[in-house]
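Task: sequence design from structure.
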């Protein structure tokens, strides 16, 4: 098992000290990263002690240690899962061959583009969440926000390491650019749509960590299958950290629902206005936020039929999440069915090669995974004897990428006219009034153990500490 050199200027388990050139290049990028963190990272909390976990190893047991750290002192480093001796390519046309320890020349530009796209999302999310600390509903939540932020920063390091180590001068330039594009910037926006959406309230933050971080999980799982072994090992370890982010999302949304149910019980009502007047978020509004972030995240999988995706799979660049569970790892001549607009206001089935349909395969696995949390939330609502159930909209609803981009449908995925969509939009997606209402609830709570009125406390604290632990010393 590899050990992490925690004393190094850049903590790592890649023997960075043995490669002076790479070490120098990364040490040159480090101040630019810290500068970006201070300008674009969490605003105003840099001097505060935060109870953070830091990676100290890469094996499943005991990989992290917890302690108070001001965020700028976080030990961002480069950690790869241990190399598996004799690992073979598990899919595509090179199936069964040795994995690559370097990038083959013919795939260089494709790998670079994918690594840049992945890398771009990490700082983008930190930028989106920059101001949320000011309205945290508790110290527990504030700490979780910062934990997510520092780990997204570390995920940026993971991709920048690959760019520096394997892509020479181009890679170094791309690493600089990762700090130059900014979420929502009109001139230099982040690459993927979702990462330019404003995030000015905590309901959106919880939806984002539930739905968008879960896209991260599936994309990282696809890379963890890659024939380019350093990419596979890097993303494998990122997945360890990613799990907590989705936990923050699932429990966050769950706690919002729980609090709303309490208010509904106390007032014996399901009247939206009465629930809102009591300072809780009515369940239909929660559903609308869910519809927004779920559909935005669906776009992150790319088009239903994509020659790019076929190329990634054929060449061993990017597999399917948990490739081992599929029966056929080559999919040379197989076909699958996707749903496309029929051009006459309806839906029709179309056969595409499975290789072309890889984005859709991954998207459908993602939808299944999203439904797991929904089922838990719905069970909680049912146990509370409240007549309401959340439902994910169709993958055809409100799409901006792929076959359904710009085709108006209802949440069940039936095509409708643009006028019908406009007329119904405010019952399906957050309206300006919904957003203004949710934002009006965002008041900062700083007393240990206390929660804002719109969210229930968590069942337990972090790392076996109580909920009223002083997670951030303000
Ligand atoms: N917005 O052939 P197509 C995470 C572009 S989240 C804007 O269908 P392909 C995280 C696409 O780039 C995971 N543009 O796409 C979560 C392509 O452009 P070019 C991030 C989009 O290549 C929370 C063109 O449309 N990781 O880690 O099959 C917090 C044609 O597309 C969008 C990755 O995404 C969009 N939504 O698949 C922090 C993995 N969708 O090349 C972090 C890396 C597509 O023609 N990326 N386009 O200029 C990929 O694997 C692929 O680029 C995609 C698209 C899956 C995104």
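Answer:
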């Amino acid at each position: 098992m590899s050990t992490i050199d925690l004393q190094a200027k850049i903590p790592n388990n890649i023997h960075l000290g043995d490669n002076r050139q790479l070490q120098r290049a990364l040490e040159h990028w480090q101040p630019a990263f810290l500068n970006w963190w201070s300008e674009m990272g969490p605003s105003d909390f840099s001097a505060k002690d935060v109870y953070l976990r830091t990676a100290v190893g890469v094996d499943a047991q005991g990989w992290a240690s917890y302690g108070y750290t001001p965020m700028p002192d976080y030990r961002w480093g480069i950690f790869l899962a241990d190399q598996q001796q004799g690992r073979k390519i598990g899919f595509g046309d090179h199936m069964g061959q040795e994995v690559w320890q370097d990038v083959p020349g013919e795939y260089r530009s494709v790998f670079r583009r994918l690594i840049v796209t992945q890398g771009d999302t990490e700082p983008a999310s930190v930028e989106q969440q920059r101001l949320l600390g000011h309205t945290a509903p508790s110290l527990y939540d504030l700490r979780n926000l910062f934990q997510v932020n520092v780990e997204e920063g570390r995920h940026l390091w993971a991709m920048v390491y690959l760019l520096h180590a394997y892509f020479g001068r181009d890679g170094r330039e791309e690493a600089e650019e990762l700090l130059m594009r900014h979420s929502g910037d009109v001139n230099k926006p982040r690459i993927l749509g979702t990462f330019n959406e404003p995030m000015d309230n905590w309901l959106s933050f919880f939806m984002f960590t539930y739905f968008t971080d879960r896209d991260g999980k599936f994309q990282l799982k696809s890379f963890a299958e890659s024939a380019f072994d350093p990419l596979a090992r890097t993303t494998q370890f990122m997945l360890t950290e990613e799990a907590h982010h989705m936990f923050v999302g699932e429990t966050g949304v769950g706690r919002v629902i729980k609090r709303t149910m309490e208010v509904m019980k106390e007032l014996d009502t399901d009247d939206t206005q009465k629930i809102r007047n009591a300072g809780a978020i009515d369940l239909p509004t929660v559903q609308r936020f869910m519809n927004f972030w779920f559909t935005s995240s669906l776009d992150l999988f790319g088009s239903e039929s994509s020659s790019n995706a076929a190329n990634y799979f054929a060449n061993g660049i990017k597999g399917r999440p948990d490739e081992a569970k599929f029966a056929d790892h080559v999919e040379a001549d197989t076909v699958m069915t996707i749903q496309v607009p029929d051009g006459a206001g309806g839906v029709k089935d179309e056969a595409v090669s499975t290789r072309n349909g890889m984005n859709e395969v991954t998207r459908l696995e993602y939808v299944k995974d999203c439904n797991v949390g929904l089922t838990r939330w719905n069970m909680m609502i049912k146990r509370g004897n409240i007549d309401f159930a959340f439902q994910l909209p169709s993958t055809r609803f409100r799409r901006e990428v792929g076959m359904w981009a710009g085709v108006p449908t209802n949440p069940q995925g039936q095509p409708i006219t643009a006028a019908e969509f406009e007329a119904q939009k405010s019952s399906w997606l957050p309206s300006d009034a919904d957003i203004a209402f949710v934002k009006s609830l965002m008041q900062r709570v700083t007393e240990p153990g206390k929660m804002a009125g719109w969210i229930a406390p968590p069942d337990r604290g972090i790392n076996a500490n109580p909920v009223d632990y002083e997670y951030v010393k303000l």
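The chain has twelve helices and five strands.
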